[in-house]
Amino acid sequence: MTYRALDSYSVLDYLRATPALDAVLDLSAPLHAREVGDGNLNLVFIVEAATGQSLVVKQALPYLRVAGESWPLTRERMRFETQALIKHNELAPGLAPQVYHFDDDMSLVVMENLAGLEVMRKPLVARKRFPKFADHISTFLARTLFFTSDFYLTGVEKKELQAKFINPHLCKIQEDFVFTNPFMESPENHWNALLNAEVEAVRQNSALKLALAEMKAYYMTHAEALIHSDLHTGSIMANAESTKVIDPEFAFFGPMGFDVGAVLENLVLNYLSHFAHTPDVATRREYQAYLLDLVREIWTQFAAKFDALWVEHNCGELMPAKYWAYPGGEEAFAEFRRRTLARILQEVAGFGGAKMLRRMMGIVSVWDITSITDLEQRAVAERLAIRIGSRWVTERHAIASVDDLLGIVREETA
Question: pTM higher than 0.85, yes or no?
Fold first, then answer.
């Protein structure tokens, strides 16, 4: 089938011509579609039948949607997203939407409609609480990262899986827009004009730029595990009982700390947004305390779950069980695991800080912050993000616990 971009009418024709979907959606019933994509890359349609059934159709455009047709982009990203969703469902059942159909020619995937769940970003601004989120997202992170790493897979298995996720074009977007372009002159950058002095200071801070260069090198060369690579609160849908990770089109084999850092950094940005969104001091402090507790719980649970998986499934070829089979080997294996998680936490700080900075001065900010209409109030949150992000990156080697990360947040917002 020849590729064509769908709209709210032609998507219905496409579905009716795909009889394999009849088990999911009554294609003979009246159907209604609406385009709801508010992201940077793709078209997203929710399709509902008069019977009450529904599904989602997501289609890649041949350009970067946030930048327009002048910025061409490969449509192959939909294949990577579909592969990642299938793998996520295999490794972390129930924590990603089900895939019903994939069409490579049309660069689209048909998947489960997550009715009853909300993209987390706006509910967090509204001070909503998600009691199971820390458990769910730490499980997702631990299982998807461990079971695609050399700690679990043989060398051949790891490399064969990695070959399916060579995602150069979307990696290039992250390499440029997260680590490079925001920190130099680049035409797509934008920021609150009240931050001109802070942006210029970041661009001339050699210690910070050296640290950012190191983080970019890690991102490009540390193929540790299959990472989502865009795991912010806009890529997670949740309610009080359920959590689903969506939009993994950036997936590739990269450093584990990148995904964990992205989740924690987004929660900190939401924390900062409440200096404007929540004027009542007592209400604000209570919710901000909840957010920092969430950061602590996510890291603590992730580390415990990852370690437990490693102990139970130490069958990878990196350092197999027989390697530690000697008197004292059990203690040495425990120390190796401890050092690995300590290193991941330091990379969480580095990657989280880099992403926090780029949201303040790059091509894409976050709604938590941009929804602050008073630019003076917005600048308060943005300046704090720049200070915290800069310290997370430059002080990452001194981070020994998640409380060290949180301590920087508290110090800068005291």
Answer: yes
